[in-house]
């Protein structure tokens, strides 16, 4: 188990799993929510990159491609990267 601090955002490697948390806000009804995703970076057999999203253990479509409001089923959803999962270490004050 390797731990690289600060270089884990876009390493360009395949086969790894990251956890990212996004905040969503519906532009239509004002509903807001937050969801943590488990994102697996894989490859198709021909080498094309494949990114698979899981939420609560279930495979879901990419929330960045087609976000849907739970409340009104609208697709005018604003997405904000929460970032609290992967940047927790970098945010620690150093002395
Ligand atoms: Zn809505």
What this model shows, in words?
This protein has 95 residues and is mostly beta strands. The protein has a domain at 17-81. 0% of the residues lie in helices and 39% in strands. It has strands at 17-26, 32-43, 49-55, 58-60, 77-81. It has a five-stranded antiparallel β-sheet, with no helix packed on it. The chain binds zinc ion. Zinc ion is lined by residues 26, 28-29, 31, 69, 71-72, 74. Zinc ion (ZN) binds next to loops.
Percent strand equals 35-45%
The chain-level mean pLDDT equals 80
Distance between the termini: 27 Å
Side by side, the strands of the main sheet go 4-3-2-1-5
Please name the defining characteristics of this protein.
mainly beta, binds zinc ion
Question: Layout of helices and strands, plus pairs?
Answer:
Layout: E1 17-26, E2 32-43, E3 49-55, E4 58-60, E5 77-81
Antiparallel strand pairs: 1-2, 1-5, 2-3, 3-4
This protein binds zinc ion (ZN).
Residues 26, 28-29, 31, 69, 71-72, 74 line the site of zinc ion.
Short description:
This protein is an all-beta fold and 95 residues long. It has no helices and five strands. It has a five-stranded antiparallel β-sheet with strand order 4-3-2-1-5, with no helix packed on it.
């Amino acid at each position: 188990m390797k731990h690289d601090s600060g270089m884990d955002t876009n390493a360009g490697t395949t086969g790894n799993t990251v956890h990212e948390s996004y905040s969503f806000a519906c532009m239509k009804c004002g509903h807001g929510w937050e969801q943590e995703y488990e994102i697996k970076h894989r490859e198709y057999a021909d080498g094309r990159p494949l990114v698979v999203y899981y939420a609560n253990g279930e495979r879901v479509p990419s929330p960045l491609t087609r976000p849907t409001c739970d409340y009104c089923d609208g697709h005018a959803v604003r997405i904000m990267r929460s970032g609290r999962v992967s940047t927790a270490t970098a945010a620690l004050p150093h002395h």
